[in-house]
Design a protein that fits this description.
By secondary structure, the protein is of the alpha/beta class. The protein contains 17 helices and 12 strands.
């Protein structure tokens, strides 16, 4: 599931109840990520323009914490040896420093920059450190007045506070640097601790905030998710009687609506999940069983997550046909409401359609477009995801059906979306990508696709127009992302395609 970023709340945005959903807020932990979120939220609030009408615009805080969770370039750029050229215009400068994770560590570095040095940061990004001595590498941007200021900042940070290995990474416009992206499945392991909100910790307005047993239960489940690494067996959760009862109440209400409101693909696969994966009102299915089923159907797998991921990380995982899902459930005191994604949203809303070949390819197409994309394009892709995988609708003859997980896991909004009250627009990725939307209420606008295949083709065409200096492909055999940037790679791809075309031609000739 994903959340804040330069883009909107993602895939597990919020499984709404019959009432409106509450927009999640960032929480405390891990320490380094949280400090960056607080700083970015403060900076965004100070610079943000006047808020648009709430019925048509996402809250400002959705645009704040993502940069802290997106990773920087895989290989750190070499230090800049030439001084900044003389100019009356300030120069964008990027500093690289490393720290050990700990309570208040990043807070102290940010305090030194802001208070001691009077620096106003414009961006902060993190990645797991490439050296074993440190936990995190950070890239921070600021507008330098001159070379003397840069030298002063580097010298002070190097000798004061917890920052180490302080150096200038760039002073020619770091925002143009290519973002880091995962190349192989094990690279997704670095996302485990980069949760932006929820997970083990709860906000004061969460229904389970004062329930110590519920909080302890969530902590145990999220600890398993944090420890998970590629290739390990998926954590098995023995759900309690109260949890199964809560699941059953939601299950009964939603399945009663699916026959008339859900798309035919969702209905068909849901019956298969009941038969093969233990979907039932009195049983919460296990991720391991579901992941095995999806793998056999479309190559998708499920991976446990502590809480909400950044849009970039969540979408990047889709390129590998990996879906991040939670294993905890909403609090039993409010079974029809949750302020964050839970297993009801993930398993009832998202999972079924990942077993559909066209929908699986459509989802991966969005993920592939996110590989190496700029922050601005990630925001657009996140919004396209919102209006499709989360809140998408499609045509079935003369009828309209829901296929978005946010609709299929919300009793109230599932009925509302076909009530004739909201505005319905033909699916157009370019238009959807810049459409503002509310988080805390039912959507005023839905985009309607002709079919999953049509939506997939439109997203592929839209993604081709995004600015990226290279092309990528997913190698399903090695489960890696290949950057097509050399003649050798292109020749290998051509040979693979030629082999596939031969197989296709042979099969066509044998048809009666």
């Amino acid at each position: 599931m994903f959340a804040r970023s330069t883009a909107p709340l993602f895939c597990a945005a919020a499984a709404r109840s019959t009432a409106t959903a509450l927009a999640p807020r960032p929480l405390a932990a891990p320490a380094a990520a949280t400090a960056a979120q607080r700083w970015l939220a403060t900076a965004a609030a100070a610079k943000a323009p006047a808020a648009p009408k709430p019925a048509a615009a996402a809250p400002k805080d959705l645009k704040s914490a993502a940069v802290a969770a997106s990773a920087a370039s895989t290989n750190a750029p070499p230090p800049v040896t030439s001084p900044i050229t003389s100019s009356c215009e300030p120069k964008r400068t990027t500093l690289l420093f490393s720290i050990e994770d700990g309570v208040g560590t990043l807070d102290e570095v940010l305090r030194i920059l802001a208070t001691d040095l009077g620096i106003s940061l414009t961006r902060i990004e993190s990645r797991p450190s490439k050296t074993k001595e440190w936990d995190y590498d950070f890239f921070v941007d600021f507008d330098a007045a001159d070379q003397a200021q840069i030298d002063r900042v580097v010298a002070h940070l190097s000798t004061t506070g917890p920052a180490r290995v302080v150096r200038v990474a760039s002073n020619t416009g770091a925002t143009d640097a290519m973002p880091w992206f995962p190349r192989k499945l094990t690279d997704l392991d670095s996302f485990s601790s980069k949760v932006l909100s929820f997970g083990a910790e709860l906000d004061a307005d969460h229904p389970g905030f004062t329930d110590a047993a519920y909080r302890e239960r969530r902590a145990r489940i999220t600890a398993n998710a944090a420890a998970y690494r590629t290739g390990m067996p998926l954590p098995h959760v023995e759900y309690t009687t109260d949890e199964v009862k809560t699941w059953g109440l939601v299950y009964d209400q939603l399945t009663a609506l699916y026959a008339t409101h859900a798309c035919r693909e969702h209905q068909y696969i849901f019956r298969l999940l009941e038969k093969n994966c233990g979907y039932a009102r009195d049983n919460i299915p296990q991720q391991a069983d579901i992941s095995k089923f999806l793998k056999e159907c479309t190559g998708f797998t499920i991976r446990p997550v502590m809480g909400l991921l950044s849009s970039r990380d969540f979408l990047n995982a889709l390129a590998f046909r990996v879906f991040y899902g939670t294993q905890y459930i909403r609090h039993h005191s409010k079974p029809y409401y949750t302020p964050e994604p839970d297993i009801c949203h993930e398993l009832l809303g998202h999972v079924p359609l990942f077993a559909d070949p066209d929908f699986a390819e459509f989802s991966q197409q969005i993920g592939m477009a996110s590989i190496g994309a700029s922050d601005a394009d990630i925001k657009k892709l996140a919004t396209v995801y919102w209006f499709t995988v989360e809140y998408g609708m499609c045509k079935e003859g003369d009828a309209l059906k829901a296929y978005g997980a946010g609709l299929l896991s919300s009793i109230g909004e599932l009925e509302y979306c076909v009530s004739g009250k909201p505005e319905l627009r033909p699916f157009d990725p370019a238009r959807a990508a810049v459409t503002e939307y509310p988080i805390c209420e039912f959507q005023p606008v839905y985009y309607v696709a002709e079919s999953f295949r049509d939506a997939k083709d439109k997203v592929r065409e839209y993604a081709a127009g995004l600015k990226r200096p290279f092309s990528v492909r997913y190698n399903a055999v090695t489960e890696t992302i290949e950057v097509l940037d050399t003649k050798e790679k292109l020749v290998r791809l051509a040979q693979s395609l030629r082999s596939e075309l031969y197989t296709l031609s042979d099969a066509l000739e044998k048809l009666p």
